[in-house]
Amino acid sequence: MKKDCVFIYSDDFQLYKFHNAHPFNQLRVKLTYDLLREMKALDDEQVIFPRMATDEELELIHDRAYIEAVKAAGQGRLSEDVALNYGLGTEDTPIFPNMHEASALLVGATLTAVDYVLSGKAKHALSLGGGLHHGFRGKASGFCIYNDSAVAIKYMQERYGLRILYVDTDAHHGDGVQWAFYDDPNVCTFSIHETGRYLFPGTGNITERGQGKGYGFSFNIPVDAFTEDDSWLKAYTQAFREIAAFFKPDIILTQNGADAHYYDPLTHLSVTMKTYREIPKIAHEIAHQYCDGRWVAVGGGGYDIWRVVPRAWALIWLEMTEQSNISGSLPKAWLDKWQPLSPVPLPPEWDDPETLYPPIPRKAEITEKNAQTVEKALYPIRSQRQNIKQSL
């Protein structure tokens, strides 16, 4: 097992909790952590306790007035009207006690991961508490209060002077990160997600390519509803490799939402654990090809916290530490511990059965449509490459 990887973790991640019925549930991080521990795949020295982000670090992306509003809301001192102006107190982002502290810890965890990688203490770092990609400069959105990935990217730019490739495989478009760097040629954002025709936040079209000096550094692949593994993976693999070759990043930050899975209750895609095996493999390959291995990975969406997220997120760590050939049964001790608390039967094995869902009637049409989307999304890169070849 590779030892040059760190896993950022604290039980205090559980404090980021809207209410018991809310779909966003950080118990999934603990479930993943416990799964890896039961497997003996995560050692004590690899687990790093996170720090809390400072107000100055949050202000790299968020307005001071918004940060103060979050603090006041978490202390019960913000009126409903003012709160709603900041996206707080909505159905998606209800107010909860000490929400600033809980949110700042998640940002600090991602910054901890960044510092371990960029100080040379680790090649790869995993911070599953993060990945809150919908947060905006002055507004909460989509379960996200502070945008840890955007703060981390700005932090890497200002402290380390790097070019960053941000890769978002959440089923929802990574809008908050994209818009934060839409005019920045030193940050390339790539989001593959379910089309916004049916799903929040409704953005992420292929025409969103950046603006000003940042034009041509924003890539989106909105796949069709009911997309399955083969089509999803072909789009992801082609796009990731071509974008990395075009941009040549200094470091990769991947957001690993696990909500494209067939079981996820909030989305309409049909991928299985086959996809979640491959996502980190490609990221690992690209990180070593272009970035001397520098790879920071964060969590994200994922609302079937029992059957999907622990397996999917554990596979990121197993890939980072070169243990990804795992297959067969999940640890009996883990199943015995958590099954009494789970409202659904836990999957007994790492991989999903081939009969997980009935055949998709429009499979050929969906596959062709996704292939066309990839062609359109990558056309600027391919056109530029063809022009270079013709000029030689």
TrEMBL record:
Gene3D superfamilies: Histone deacetylase domain
SUPFAM superfamilies: Arginase/deacetylase
InterPro entries in the cross-refs: AcuC (IPR003085), HDACs (IPR000286), His_deacetylse_dom (IPR023801), His_deacetylse_dom_sf (IPR037138), Ureohydrolase_dom_sf (IPR023696)
Signal peptide: none
Organism taxonomic ancestry: Bacteria, Bacillati, Bacillota, Bacilli, Bacillales
Sequence ranges assigned to domain Histone deacetylase in this UniProt record: 22-317
Source taxon at top rank: Bacteria
Protein name per the record: Acetoin utilization protein AcuC
Pfam families: Hist_deacetyl
Record's keyword terms, sorted: Acetoin catabolism
GO molecular function: histone deacetylase activity
The keyword Isomerase is annotated on this UniProt entry: no
